[in-house]
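Methods — Computational structure assignment.
A single polypeptide chain was analysed. Its primary sequence is given first, followed by the predicted tertiary structure written as structure tokens.
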Amino acid sequence: MLAVASREKNPSVAFLEPYAKWRASRLGRITDALEEELILEVAGDVAGRRMLDVGGGDGKLVQLFARKQAQVTIMDMDSRMLDAVRHRFADAGLPVETVEGDAARLPFPDNSFDIVTVVTVLCFVEDAGQAVAEMARVLRPGGVLLLGELNRYSLWAAWRRLRGWLGSATWRSVHFRTPAGLKKLVVRAGLRVTVLRAAVFYPPFGWAAALSRSVDLKIGRHLSFGGAFLVLEASKP
């Protein structure tokens, strides 16, 4: 009933439906939970810290940070997505600032944020180096960049490339990066890599996710090769 009422008031909620559909599957539910758990673990205590999320998607991950008392700003290029996210936060009783903008030209002054998060966005950005340089610019000294990306060295990347070759618009022009490639991006922006971890070491099947769930993050503490999802943390001197 609440979902229907919310959709009637806000047609942009339709933009969140692909995310909901993915999480309704066993594969999506387990995979999302692992990725979120890894990001939260690497982020640590965010209470009272000013956070920018670039390309926030449906806002679910950022809601977790808002519940931990981070001061959250979400930036996205799509005003309709931002509208849907505002309604989602309002329904949850959580504060959020939303800003329309481009990752390559962030509409914020230098040294504005304690944390910048960007999750599965750079793989779709034309000039990732420029985007990371902008994120470094808006970080305060001592601030951290939390970068979540899709690993080139994984079965998931092969599966997604195949889907792109078969006509998927989402995966046709995606750029998968290696752990070394991600490190180069942030170092060139003047940041120092402090953590590199991985998750999702199983193939893209629900039964495999269920079997691997209990050991996946433990593997990712020691190994990045083969993990479909990479999390890199880098600090600004």
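Note: Strands lie at 50-54, 71-76, 97-100, 113-119, 139-150, 192-199, 229-235.
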